[in-house]
C-alpha cells in the first residue's frame, strides 16, 4: 500500500493546478502547496527531527495545521494533534506521554502552552503573531516554511506511524491512539467510497484536525484532487457564507453543527444549493433534525456514519432517511458483532433485537493495534482480536445496526435496561423542542429515573404546560411506558464536548444551567 506522502503526490501529478486548500484569502493549488510542504519538511529536519518523532500540534483548523499534517507524512514524523483549547495540565500530560520533540502553538492557546512545564524543554514553534516573546528561541512557522528545499521525497513507509490522536478522556486520562499510514489511507479510501466522492469535491474543513472526522476530510480531499476549505472555529453564519462562496459540495459534520447551521439559515437565509452530499458522525441524529436537514438540502446522498478514533468506520447507512436511527451495516473495511452485555468472549453473540455491546474485528484495514503506553486500556478494550467499543446497540431483522448509547450511559430503572437515544428521538419530534438529552438520575425506589433535559424553542412559554405537553406527546408515541421520561428539566444549553458530543455525565452531576440563569434546578415531574 502507498504511504500518505506518495498519496498526496498522486494528486499533485494528476491535477497540479487544481485548488487544494483555502484559508480566508490564502489559496494554494496542489503544485504550490507541495512546494511549501517541501520547505516545511526541510525546516523540521533542520531542527533535528527524525523519522518516528512525535510532533505536538495545538492549533486550530488553519493552513499551517493542514500543512504541518502533510509535512509529517512526508518526513515520517508522527503527527500528534491536541485540542487547541487544551489546559496546561492536558498539554503536560500529552507532551510527556508522547515524548514529543517539538510543539506548534498559536496565540489562542499561548497562555496554556507557556504554563505547561513539560514543553519547556522542547522547541515551541509559534504560528502567527504572539502576545509575548518566543519560547526557547525556536524558529517561527514562517521561518520553517521558508527553508530552502529540493524535490519533495516521501521518507515513510505504509507501516510507519502517521498519526496519534488522543481520545476525549471523558473518564480518566486521555488515551493515545497510534495509527499507521496504511490504517489512515485505508480509512480515507473507505470514506471516499462510502460517501461516493468524485474528483474535485469541495469540503468544509471545520471538524477539528485533532479529531478523526477532521483528519478524514483532509485526507479524503487529497485522494480525489479536491478542495479543503479551512474554518478555524465553527460559526453558523460564516459556514453558510463559505458554502456559497466556495461552492462546497460535501459536508461531514456532527449533528450539533448541522442543527446550528439550519437554525441560522432559517433566521437569515443562505444558499445550500451547491451541497450534494451530507454525512454525519460523532453522535446520533434525532428524527426531527434528520427531516429538517433533508428538506433544506435535498442531498443526492445522506450518510449516517458510525465510528471511532480506534477503528475509523464501524458502520454506515448511505440513506439516512431510509430507516431513521439506523447506523446501517459494517463499513467496507470492517466486521461487526453485537455481543451480550454480560459476555466474557466476543463469540457470545446477542440475538436479533437483543441489546448488547458492539465489537469490531481488529483485523480490519482501518483498525488500530493498541493504545499508546496504556496496557490497562488494552486489557479493558481489546478482547481476543476484537475491539470492545463501549457502545450499546442491536441488529434488527434486516441486519441493520442500531446504536443505543454507551454502556456507561445505560439507565437501569426498576430492573429494565433503558437507552437514552430512543427516548431522545421521540422527544425531539415535539415542535417545542430545540434540543434534548436524556439521562438517568438516582432514585431511591427505581434505582434510576429517566429524566429529559430540554432546550426549548420558546423559553418564554409556560414550563409546566410544556412539560405536560411533552409527556402527552410521549404517551401518544410508540415509546414503551417504562422508557417515558418521569421528569423534564428545561435548560439554556445541552452540555457538549468540543466536537459536539452530549456530556450526560454533566447532566447527572447537575453541571448545567437551567432556564432563568439558575444552576441545577428541580425537574418538572410527569405523571406516572
From TrEMBL:
<dbReference type="InterPro" id="IPR000873">
    <property type="entry name" value="AMP-dep_synth/lig_dom"/>
</dbReference>
<dbReference type="InterPro" id="IPR045851">
    <property type="entry name" value="AMP-bd_C_sf"/>
</dbReference>
<dbReference type="GO" id="GO:0031956">
    <property type="term" value="F:medium-chain fatty acid-CoA ligase activity"/>
</dbReference>
<keyword id="KW-0436">Ligase</keyword>
<dbReference type="InterPro" id="IPR025110">
    <property type="entry name" value="AMP-bd_C"/>
</dbReference>
<protein>
    <submittedName>
        <fullName>Long-chain-fatty-acid--CoA ligase</fullName>
        <ecNumber>6.2.1.3</ecNumber>
    </submittedName>
</protein>
<feature type="domain" description="AMP-binding enzyme C-terminal">
    <location>
        <begin position="423"/>
        <end position="501"/>
    </location>
</feature>
<dbReference type="InterPro" id="IPR020845">
    <property type="entry name" value="AMP-binding_CS"/>
</dbReference>
<dbReference type="GO" id="GO:0004467">
    <property type="term" value="F:long-chain fatty acid-CoA ligase activity"/>
</dbReference>
<dbReference type="Pfam" id="PF00501">
    <property type="entry name" value="AMP-binding"/>
</dbReference>
<comment type="similarity">
    <text>Belongs to the ATP-dependent AMP-binding enzyme family.</text>
</comment>
<feature type="domain" description="AMP-dependent synthetase/ligase">
    <location>
        <begin position="10"/>
        <end position="372"/>
    </location>
</feature>
<dbReference type="InterPro" id="IPR042099">
    <property type="entry name" value="ANL_N_sf"/>
</dbReference>
<dbReference type="Pfam" id="PF13193">
    <property type="entry name" value="AMP-binding_C"/>
</dbReference>
